[in-house]
Amino acid sequence: MIDSGNGQTTWLDEEEQRSWRALLMGMTLLLDRLDDDLRRCCALSLVEYEILVRLSEREGRQMRMAQLADALAHSRSRVTHTVTRMEKAGLVERSSSPEDGRGVIASMTEKGYDLLARTAPIHVGGVREHLVDLATHEDFLAIGRVMNAVSDNLVAAHPEMEIRVKDA
Asked: Do the beta carbons of residue 62 and residue 108 sit within 8 Å?
């Protein structure tokens, strides 16, 4: 065990440590599996899928790149790199914002929408099989409440990195 030297650390007890490690392992395995499923069936990554989902939920199937990065809780450079790849595949298009000319708008193409329509059942099936259906309804709702509290706490602690959770 590591000594923090300040005597202030409240260490995780055995049960908390098991739960923490289970969360890390479970999330890693779940995200890897969902990503693998999408790559195998449709040559699409989980991040690319999430970009298509976010765009599909917006009026005109478009949004500013900065808002997209915030909604995904990813860096702007990572989203730009991913959208560039998706643009080359014909799934999205980028254009200057008509409002101010400085912002960049990402728009879903018909090809992107068609791919999303084909992949959504595969993704949702995986989420159900590997998470939702393994927990009771109450436990699944509790997971959502806990992760919302984590998100709210982290956003409040760093408002400069605000994630527009209500937009996400």
From this structure: yes
